[in-house]
Amino acid sequence: MYLLSGTTSFFIDRLAEALQNALSTPESEAFDTSIFYGKDTQAQTIIEAAKRYPMIAEKQFILVREAQHLNKQFEQLAPYVAQPQSQTVLVFCYKYKKFDKRQKFYKAVSKHGVFYEAQPLYDNQIEPWILSTAKTMGIHLEAQSAAVLNFNVGGDLERLYSDMEKLKLLAGTATITPEMVAQHIGFSKTYNNFELVNALAEKNFTQAMHIALHMGQNPKQHPLVVTLSTVFSFFQRLLLFHSLADKSQAASVLGIKPFFVRQYTAASRLYTMRQCSAAVALLADADVKSKGVGGDASQPDGILKEMLLGLMRL
After folding, report:
1. Domains of the chain (ranges plus CATH)?
2. Pairwise pLDDT comparison (188 vs 172), residue with the higher score
């Protein structure tokens, strides 16, 4: 009995696939493998299937995809999970969110089966994951190639895996270079205002400019007024953070969650109070230009780049 849950569907799908490959054979698949979809099935149908005996294999394999759509039916499944049939391996793929651990179903799985929660990778875990996955796939991938792949695609593991399969076909046994990744894997990562602020908070102007270029190509999706407002709020808060005598009060004074205080603490070491004041003035000037005063409001990407260049010169 397996309950695979979490926000990272890639790991859930791969684990379910591995279980199916381990327990099913081409000969037994037609008779002893059943696949249900949460949207299209009922709890009782799954229970009845799970109570059958295998015809060819030692155990029958039942996979319930999109199990999050079963909703309240998990209560009906709990009694079976508490007394599962030994001849059946039953796998539930509960994707895109965490399973409610207060439910009887979860408690039954924890006692009689296996619960797995797929956690998303942090940004600093993506490149190591790319390198280890490439090794598993038999791909010779340079470390710099992993960095370029991560930069182009971001943290979408499904897309990364698909692109690595593509590179494997193209390269064969040859080593995959950064140039090969840049040539064959297009830029697909979606950036937003918060990632721009994160880059500025770290004084990573190369990354900030790259994000700005991407956002400038999609002005409808990234209105300049919203971007300027978000960056303005960051530097305004950072200026206020500098003025605080008691930094332990930062979260309540700045109106942010305690988790984000460390970002302001780190940024305060990179930007002086005078630089923060200058940044606020730059952003106010950019806001005026975005309204057509002293600037060309029809070129929002130009105003954004000019603002970033100004911040770089502080």
Report:
1. 2-118 (3.40.50.300), 123-184 (1.10.8.60), 193-312 (1.20.272.10)
2. 172
